[in-house]
Each structure stands twice: as structure tokens, then as C-alpha cells.
Amino acid sequence: MSWPPDYHLHTPLCRHATGEPVAYARNALARGLTEIGFSDHSPMARDDFDEWRMRLDQLDDYVAAVEHARREVPELTIRLALEVDYLPGHESWIRSLAKRHPWDYFIGSVHYLDDAWDVDNPHKLEQWRHRDVDGVWDAYVQRLTAAAASGLFDIMGHIDLPKKFGHRGQQSLAQLYEPFMQAARAADVAIELNTAGLRKPCQEIYPARELLASAQQHGVAITFGSDAHAPEEVSQDFAAALTLARSVGYREARTFQKGQKAARSL
Ligand code: ZN
Ligand code: FE
Ligand code: FE
Ligand code: ZN
Fold first, then answer.
1. Distance in Å from the first CA to the final CA of the chain
2. Ligand 1: distance of its center to the CA of 99 in Å?
3. Rounded CA gap, 193 and 23, in Å?
4. How many Cβ atoms from other residues are within 10 Å of residue 258's Cβ?
5. Given this model, what pLDDT does residue 1 score?
6. Ligand 2 centre and the CA of 72: distance in Å?
7. Which single residue of 32, 51, 185, 242 has CA 20 to 30 Å from 175?
8. CA 217–ligand 1 middle distance (angstroms)
9. Is the dihedral of CA 98, 101, 104, 109 positive or negative?
């Protein structure tokens, strides 16, 4: 079995993950992976924006920790990346981040629906009671589509994140996401199969099969990510993700080196 790269790994700098990058890398190697990528939560322009990401003055430490893992585990190809929050108005900040280091790729993630509500935050579940579920999904997909069209990102992260705690709308997912799929295809942005959903109340990979099938029909490329916040989560449930990808017709995963795209067969 040859595994696709695990492109979604965190580090303790984001304040809610454990284990140094070297430990993630050793686990990846032990599980038979040949390539991984660190994509920890990127700093915001203001460090007081929230409390679940690295501070700006830690960005160099982050790069150093990934480079350290490269030296300690030379058998493994280790990519340097970030999971970057997309919020309208943050574009110039994201562009300036992109220039700071020779990143291999950026995962663009929508966590925030407005400046104060990160929809996946378990401490803010209460927000859901004040909102119309379909309205949340509409707003989420709108923001995600703008992110895909922005040209700032290589991969869109966990594209159906609002399902995390089980909030499902009435609308057809394929219809709801049609504008997003067109934007992703037009910008040639990949989406990820993110297995963390299997560890959450929704108990389902991000994205749902219906969305993945639609992505495949639109010609949108894919990557794989465990969204590991601990070394033992590296490549967790990749067998299920591979089976899902193949079942809707995918035959390759996209890879990145300094923003350059390549493909690896599945
Ligand atoms: Zn996280
Ligand atoms: Fe995320
Ligand atoms: Fe993540
Ligand atoms: Zn994530």
C-alpha cells in the first residue's frame, strides 16, 4: 500500500496540539508514508485575534522546528506549509505571510463566519441556537467560494466544516456547493479529504461523499490530511479516505513543492 502525503499536521505552537514535529515525522515514517506537510494555524496580523494559533513572533520558530524534523528524519519528504484562515479583508495580510518563507503550500480554511464566531469552536456551540442552520451553511459556502477564487490558497481545508457537531441543513449539498466547485476548478485549487471529521461528532470525513463526487466531476484535485493535533493521529483513517476517493473516481492526489503542483497516483 502506498499512502498519499499527509498534508495537514499541526504543532504545539497553536496551543491546542501536542508533540513536536519530529515525533509526527517519526510516526509517519513508521506508518509507511513517504511525504508529509506541516500546516499549523498561521498567525493573524493581531496576536489578540484568538488563542488557538501561533503568535507572529513564533513564525520563525515554527519554520525552524519543521527544518529540524527534516534533519532528524531525512528519509521522509517534509513540506513546510500553513493552515491560513480566510476572512474578507485579510487578503493583504495573507499575501505578506506568503512572502515570509519558502512555503510549499497554503491550506485556506474557513473557520470564522464573522470576526467573532469560529463555527468549529466547541466553546461556542451556543451560537448555533441563535442561527438558522441553512443560513450558516449559505454564509459558509459563500465565504469558502470567495477564498477559493482569491488565488491565495493551494488547498481548501475541510470544506464542509459546519457539519462538525451534526448541524446539517435541508439543502442539497451538491447544489449549495456548485458555485464553490466552479470557483475551485477555475482557480485550480485542490480540496482536501480531511479524516479529522471521523474523530468528531459528525463521524464523517470532510467532505461528504456527495461533495467529493461533485468535485471529481468538476475536475477539482484532491489532497489528504489527518489534521493531526497529536503524533498518533498522523495518517489516521487514510485507508477509509483512499477508499472514498477511489470510489468516486479519483486516481491521483495532488502534491506541492514550493507552490509547484505535481500528481501522485493513488
Ligand atoms: Zn487546530
Ligand atoms: Fe481547520
Ligand atoms: Fe487543522
Ligand atoms: Zn483543520
1. 9
2. 23
3. 23
4. 10
5. 61
6. 27
7. 242
8. 30
9. negative
In the block, residue with C-alpha cell 481545508: 157
Q: What's the whole-number mean pLDDT along residues 158-167?
A: 98
Give the Å distance between the CA of 157 and the centre of ligand 2: 6
Cα 196 to ligand 1 centroid, rounded to whole Å: 10
Which residue bears the cell 464573522?
Answer: 114
Residue-wise pLDDT tens digits, 52-105: 999 999 999 999 999 999 999 999 999 999 999 999 999 999 999 999 999 999
111-125: average pLDDT: 95
- The pair phi, psi for residue 228, each rounded to 5°, is -65, 130
Handedness of CA 102, 106, 111, 116 (dihedral sign): positive
Q: With beta carbons less than 8 A apart as the criterion, state whether 4 and 37 touch.
A: no
- Maximum Cα interatomic distance, the chain, rounded to a whole number of Å: 50
CA 236–ligand 3 middle distance (angstroms): 14
User: Could you give the CA distance from residue 221 to residue 68 in angstroms, rounded to a whole number?
Assistant: 30
54 CA to middle of ligand 4, Å?
Answer: 14
Kindly write down the DSSP assignment for every residue of 88-115, as one continuous string.
TT-HHHHHHHHTTS--SEEEEE--EEET
Nearest ligand to the C-alpha atom of residue 51: 1
Tell me how far the alpha carbon of residue 133 lies from the centroid of ligand 3, in angstroms. Answer: 23
State which amino acid sits at residue 93. W
Strand pairing report for 105-109 and 77-85:
parallel
Amino acid at 14: C
Q: Which ligand is nearest to the CA of 81?
A: 3
Ligand sitting nearest the alpha carbon of 85: 2
Q: Which ligand is nearest to the CA of 14?
A: 1
Q: What's the pLDDT at 115?
A: 83
